[in-house]
């Protein structure tokens, strides 16, 4: 039986928001929505008999009208990855890395010189480090009751030289 993986950039529609929330709840027990002004890339596993959603990432482009970053880590001055989830059975198979690479390509076509930011779940820090992100400040314990987001680490992909 042939199985195909499809990676697809989609808009923030109501039906996509529903899909996104459902997978986030399945992966981490928390309902996360695609934030406003964000895009989303979904990963589907396509079998002849069934199409399943197995991964997702939401992200927003930096606001090129802003000249200065301001003091908030999640300032819109920066392009940002906001959420990402890979279904448990499909983790550690390179899908997360592919998703981030797709997003970085999108970011590059928008702006080549501003750092890219993420507020990473503590347990995903090693994943983002493998992709070149570096920690900014120390890990923070949050008041969030959901274990995956209890510890958060600000991270940044440093400025790349324009090519
Ligand atoms: C974290 C997550 C997105 C990673 O996606 P993934 O598809 O499992 O990761 P990949 O297989 O693409 O891994 C790429 C590399 O990172 C490493 N890696 C993956 N997860 C890691 C982790 N949690 N810690 C350290 N390294 C990790 C892999 O071993 C691999 O290394 P390699 O290139 O040397 O082989 C995924 O595991 C997930 O959805 N986790 C639960 C939800 C979550 O934490 N989301 C992040 C919210 S910010």
Automatic annotation (TrEMBL):
A single GO molecular function term of this UniProt record: acyltransferase activity, transferring groups other than amino-acyl groups
Listed InterPro entries: Acyl_CoA_acyltransferase, GNAT_dom
Domain N-acetyltransferase: from-to ranges: 1-160
Domain of life: Eukaryota
Signal sequence region: none
Pfam family, one: Acetyltransf_10
Protein known as: N-acetyltransferase domain-containing protein
Gene source species: Mytilus coruscus
